[in-house]
Amino acid sequence: MSKKILVVDDELGVRESLKLILGDHYNLILTEDGAQALDCLKNAPDIGLILMDIKMPEMNGLEVLAEIKKVYPTLPVVMITGYKCVETAAEAVKLGACGYIVKPFKSDEILKKVKSVLK
Ligand SMILES: [Mg+2]
Fold it and tell me: Based on the structure, what is the number of domains in the chain?
């Protein structure tokens, strides 16, 4: 059984497009904020990759990333960012994210990135 992908994004539209792109190939868990995501991580040890938005209302993606890295330092996290936050995404990479994807993304871009991380 392949590993699960945890999606964290406050926008329903983004969660739905990631589900359309990845849902046939991977097992997805969709969450809308950092608290939900951290909760899922506790209960689903078979998560192999996290795709996470940067701009979220409660905890932002960098804060959630820091929490995740404290507990799961080797778990790959790919940030999803608006083009206005590309600098923040670069900062996330310094904090341990293994890359980022800029919105609006293309499906082959997502598939390629996910494939390269999960191989
Ligand atoms: Mg957002």
Answer: 1
33 alpha carbon – ligand 1 mean position (Å): 9
- The residue ranges of DSSP E strands in 23-76, in sequence order, are 27-31, 47-53
Look up the CATH number of the domain holding residue 82: 3.40.50.2300
Distance 1 CA to ligand 1 centre (A): 30
Distance 73 CA to ligand 1 centre (A): 24
Tell me the pTM: 0.95
Give the domain range for residue 84: 4-118
Are the beta carbons of 116 and 109 closer than 8 angstroms? Answer: no
Question: What is the tens place of the pLDDT at every residue in 61-91?
Answer: 999 999 999 999 999 999 999 988 889 999 9
